[in-house]
Amino acid sequence: MARRTAAVSAISLAVVVAAAACGPEHRGAAQPATKPSRTPELTAKPSQTAPSPSASAGARPGAACGAKQLRWRLTRLADKSSKAPTALLSATNIGTLRCAFNGYPELHAYAGKGPAVWSEPMSKAPVRLVLNHGNAVDFPLFYPASPVAGGSCSIPLDDDPRIEVLPPHPPRTDYGAFLQITDPHGRQVSPVFCDTVHMGAPRMR
Fold first, then answer.
1. Which element (helix H / strand E) includes 19?
2. For the chain: N or C, fewer Cβ within 10 A?
3. pTM
4. 73 or 15: which leads in pLDDT
5. d(CA 126, CA 79)
6. CA distance 138 to 204
7. How far apart are CA 125 and CA 122, in angstroms?
8. Contact 175, 108 (CB under 8 A)
9. Whole-angstrom Cα Rg for the chain
10. Are 115 and 163 contacting, i.e. CB atoms less than 8 angstroms apart?
11. CA distances from residue 102 to 53, 119, 137, 169, 190 in whole angstroms, order as listed
12. DSSP 3-state assignment of 2?
């Protein structure tokens, strides 16, 4: 009886030892103590930057140049040849965006409510230009700045006319800009217009 009891006790002890040895290993395989971290799906994708409004606006070559975007200059030239231009009208894009300069500007000189002179293109060929920031376009002007023998001027010297210029295709809210005519050294000279101002083809620079 004592031997049977000892044998049963030995078998029970062996079962307990085996269970103790196998238990933790099985639990670790079925249920890991630490789960691997997961990266959210949004952070896994590369970020995308939408184009800025200024960049998209600057890429529109169809936006017409406005008077406030342009710096105008009217220069009386020294060449007295009959075939040389009398003056040079220049427009420089001082804005941050490029713009379309499609057509001829309009030059108008007038003395109060009295005599006036307008510009007319010498050619009917279309003008389609794109001015980037800092680009300039020159228009040669042909007109008599002194009366012919026995003739008179539309706007004589002592009338001191005002000169204004409008860009091509201006909106209703664009009233153009006023100009002072200068010599090639930038010194102001008195404007004299004896007839219509004929505007030659543009030259980019």
1. helix 2-30
2. N
3. 0.68
4. 73
5. 28
6. 6
7. 9
8. no
9. 43
10. no
11. 24, 17, 12, 8, 30
12. helix
45 or 63: which carries more pLDDT confidence? 63
Helix/strand/coil (H/E/C) assignment for every residue in 105-167: CEEEEECCCCCEEEEEECCCCCCCEEECCCCEEEEEEECCCCCCCCCCCCECHHHCCEEEEEC
As a residue count, the chain comes to 205
151 CB-contact burial (10 Å; exposed 0-12 / middle 13-18 / buried 19+): exposed
32-41, 97-106, 183-192: least confident range: 32-41
* Encoded tokens for 57: 């606006």
Q: Can you give the pLDDT at residue 150?
A: 64
d(CA 100, CA 131): 6
Question: Who wins on pLDDT, 1 or 105?
Answer: 105
DSSP-derived pairing of the beta strands 203-204 and 129-131: unpaired
Task: Give the model's pLDDT for residue 52.
Answer: 33
* Interval 169-187 mean pLDDT: 91
pLDDT for residue 143: 92
At residue 173 the predicted structure's pLDDT band, cuts being 50, 70 and 90, is: confident
Rounded Cα–Cα distance for residues 204 and 153 (Å):
32
Tokens representing 31 are 């249920």
Give Cβ neighbours of residue 167 (< 8 Å, ≥ 6 apart).
Answer: 64, 65, 66, 67, 70, 91, 101, 105, 174, 176
**CA 125 to CA 12: how far, in whole Å?**
112
